[in-house]
Specification:
Radius of gyration: 15 Å
Oligomer: single chain
Order of helices and strands: HHEEHEEHHEE
Structural class: alpha+beta
CATH architecture of the domain at 35-107: Orthogonal Bundle
Protein name: Helix-turn-helix domain-containing protein
Strand order of the largest sheet: 3-4-6-5
CATH superfamily of the domain at 35-107: Winged helix-like DNA-binding domain superfamily/Winged helix DNA-binding domain
Domain HTH crp-type: 36-107
InterPro entries: HTH_CRP, WH-like_DNA-bd_sf, WH_DNA-bd_sf
Number of strands: 6
Strand content: 15-25%
Pfam families: HTH_Crp_2
Helix content: 40-55%
CATH class of the domain at 35-107: Mainly Alpha
GO biological process, one term: regulation of DNA-templated transcription
Number of helices: 5
CATH topology of the domain at 35-107: Arc Repressor Mutant, subunit A
């Protein structure tokens, strides 16, 4: 997806502008439907990471890797991962503790937002 956006950035921005669904901020389309889908997938990946490689702490399941490593694995930007973490934090599914992501034990269920 990232490669596609780089190769077709001008047409990508034109499409988003024509549909009046997005605002280009720092070369990212924060409000487009495409970005919302990428963000939702990233949020799902963070929750799945907690279930697979997370280790249990007194607060919840801690993901032992950084946001940068998650971004590289998902082939996306760290800003996207950070935005996903902020969204999960606002939904009170995770807490951040010194650059660590801790998913709360009772908030691990995957259905998240609209699945369109």
């Amino acid at each position: 997806m990232k490669k596609f956006i780089k190769e077709n950035s001008s047409s990508f921005y034109k499409l988003a502008y024509e549909n009046h669904k997005s605002i280009a901020v720092n070369n990212h389309l924060w409000h487009s439907k495409i970005y919302e889908n990428i963000l939702l997938q990233t949020m799902h990946c963070i929750l799945m990471l907690a279930q697979t490689i997370g280790f249990e702490t007194d607060k919840g399941l801690e993901i032992p890797i950084s946001q940068q490593v998650i971004a590289k694995a998902l082939k996306t930007t760290r800003m996207t991962v950070n935005k996903a973490v902020i969204c999960l934090e606002q939904e009170k599914r995770i807490i951040r503790d010194r650059r660590k992501i801790i998913v709360l034990k009772d908030k691990l269920e995957l259905p998240l937002g609209d699945e369109n």
